Amino acid sequence: MSTTVSQIDEVKTTPWAGGRSPFAVEYGKMMMWFFLLSDAFTFSSLLISYGALRFSSAAWPAPDLVFQSVPGMIEHGAPLVFVGLMTFILIMSSVTMVLAVEAGHRNAKKEVVWWMIGTIIGGLMFLGCQALEWNHLHSEGFWWGAIPKMDELKTLFHEKHATEAVMTTYGHQFANLFFTITGFHGFHVFSGVVINIIITINVLMGTYEKRGSYLMIEKVGLYWHFVDLVWVFVFTFFYLV
Amino acid sequence: MSSEPIHTEHAEHAGEHEGMTRKRIWNVFFVLLGITCVEFFIALYLVPHGAMTYHTANPIYIVLTLAKAFYIVGYFMHLKFERLGLVFAIIVPVLFIIGLILVLTNESHHWVDLRA
Question: What's the domain count of chain A?
């Protein structure tokens, strides 16, 4: 009885020899990664077309003039404060999500539930803030294919020399792109909240306890972090640049 | 003879659980918060007071955004601790996005001429 492994058997133990995942992740988790990759392409094509249109424009509504109110509190002169709050909420809900994943590794059901509830609340708060933000812009006159009246629109540009025709054109482009991209992102947040609620109910019913692993939390966690990641980019390219 | 595969199996599971402790999670959170604060400092203080122009601020925003993306994907999404094969499978396709950025940036230069 020899203990040496024959050459052929040894080949079979490498990660790429077949019979198991070379990536050493469970199938569903790997598919979540590939779905997120495809979603990353969708979001980047939206953001890149936004970039190209803005880069080629003669004038563009200035972020510090368009976004300078905190709905219900400050009407003017507080640029980026509200969106800063939204960013903080989303990063915070990402943290509670990793903490839920971490608790899942320790099979601590109660902790998982509380962190998941925290994540859901964060998501709902973000959606609420976005609804206020949309409502504010809508009340100013912005919507898909709609812009504020000319005397009001003029106050949103730094380029004072721009003609009314130029402001009309690029005001429209800004409005369409803003509502499409933040809307698509908000839809992702909404789906994430729904998925998180379903998973939390499953945790409460003991589905993963019976299964012996909280891997499902990791998978929805990946989706949730991706939504946060997209917001980081939306925030930079709509509000900062 | 059969102890060989079991051994590698163990090594895999050990790798799966290393990574995110609670302390590390909060560290990453404070890094993300710090980067965001720097961005706000530039946008709300440096640029309005003329200490920095849009031309210098914009590349800085983009670098800081990519840094945040690295921390979110690497630590929160755990990609830093996955097998190299999975890391490449996710990161390499994303590089094509850079191609689209270059093409459309170049294209938008021509649109300016067309619109003039």
Answer: 1
